[in-house]
Amino acid sequence: MEEKPKNQINIELTDEMAGGIYSNLAIITHSPTEFVLDFVSLMPGTPKAKVKSRIVMTPQHAKRLFKALAENINKYESAFGNIREVGTDSIPPFTMGGPKAQA
C-alpha cells in the first residue's frame, strides 16, 4: 500500500471555478486583523463596476501571498522578460472609508 506524504493537501477545482474570473483592478483594504482583496472588472467608458470576487485573509496569509506572488513574478520575468507596467497613472485612488488602497 502506497503511503501518502503527511503534509499533502488535496485541493479540488470545480468546473465552475476552473474558468476563473477576469479582473483588471484590485482594491486592497485592511484592519488590524484582516486584509480584504476586492477584484473588479472595470470596463472602459463604463461609470460603474462590480466586485467580481472578494477574498478576506489574515495578515499572516496576506504576507505569504505577497511573497508567493513576488516569487512567481520573478520566475515569470526570468522566463518571458520584464512585465511592462502601463496606465498606472490613470487608476483612481479608492479608499472606501478605510486605509488608502493599492492595486
Share of helical residues: 25-40%
Give the class from helix and strand content and strand pairing: alpha+beta
Distance between the termini: 48 Å
Number of helices: 2
State which percent range the strand residues make up. 15-25%
Net shape: extended
Q: Kindly report the average pLDDT value.
A: 87
User: Which sequence of SSEs, written as H and E, runs from N to C?
Assistant: HEEEH
Rg, rounded, reads 17 Å
Number of DSSP strands? 3
Largest sheet: 3 strands, antiparallel
Low-pLDDT windows of residues: none
User: Looking across the biggest beta sheet, what order are the strands in?
Assistant: 1-2-3
SSE blueprint:
Layout: H1 15-18, E1 25-30, E2 35-40, E3 51-57, H2 59-80
Antiparallel strand pairs: 1-2, 2-3
